[in-house]
Amino acid sequence: MWAVFLSSYLTATACYVMNSTGSSMGQFCCNLSAQGLLLAFVSPAAGASPVLAWLGVALASAGMVGLISCIQKAHNPLKKDLLEGPISISDLQTELKSMEDSIDITSKIPLPALWARDGTVESANREIKLLLGRDDIEGSGLNEIINPSLHELDLGGTGWLVFRKTVEGEDVVLLAPKGDVSAGDSSEFVDPKTGLYSDRYARKRGEEEIERARRYRRWLSMALLKLEFENLTSGPLPQSMMDEAYMKFIGLVKKTIRTTDMGFRLKDGCVLLLLPETPSSGARTLFGRIKTQVDKIIEEGSVTPFRINLLGGFSFYGGNGTTSYSQMLEEAYSNLALNED
């Protein structure tokens, strides 16, 4: 009597599970288990051979194993989705598109930039909002913000070059400062002698990078490089040879720094490097690489009236607390010392 009750309970439970999952394979396994249980319990009572009873046990066991497998598959949604059919290319492209939409592209660009889709601005970074003096850029028409026929424009008393790229209905607009080479021996943003950013732009850009580091809790390192000439003679040093060595030094700096790093030529001839997302150890490592190459500017065996030394000063901001460009620059100057191997 207990055996009949147990078999009925198990069969009813299995039927409920399979009906709820809608698995045809599960229904077959359920039926197999029921037939096996029936054969296992009824055949001994009918006086049949014990072989039939053991055959019923085997059928019931096989059915139960199949049921367990079906139940596990039914409760694994990822596996279930994969079994329903292969993933199409269009579904994959849609998923990748949604991932791209979740990334704020413009916030990664240090220059004023905005991104638009189908003529409507979707994202604009802090720099372009400050430049335009408005915070409601998102949702506006792109052509209302930036005239598509313009390649140059004046904003805030400064000239800007407009770079625009359109791909499949999406537009990325980037503004870059336009150097004024007619303003004497220094321009507003670009130093005409070296091609590095100017001393005037260093303060503006430095404050912006400090604010970015504070807002996103990111590292910011500052490295100050000074090339010194040690006179080996009693007379004055030839200016042409010093200028040639200095320009070689500038070329090494440009070649060594990353694309995300920024170099500025200060009024005293020092080179200031702003290194976003770089620890203080990384700034010293970069200085070491530049110094190694600077030591090779004067070719071995050549006779020169001077010896060159590269000095370095460093400051670091970890994104916590408050600081300013003037404080970081003062710290870098105070730490300016000859770095010996």
UniProtKB/TrEMBL annotation:
Give the highest taxon in the source lineage.
Answer: Bacteria
InterPro entries from the UniProt entry: GGDEF_dom (IPR000160), Nucleotide_cyclase (IPR029787), Rev_trsase/Diguanyl_cyclase (IPR043128)
Q: Where does the record place the GGDEF domain?
A: 220-341
Query: What Pfam families does this protein's entry cite?
Result: GGDEF
Protein name per its UniProtKB record: GGDEF domain-containing protein
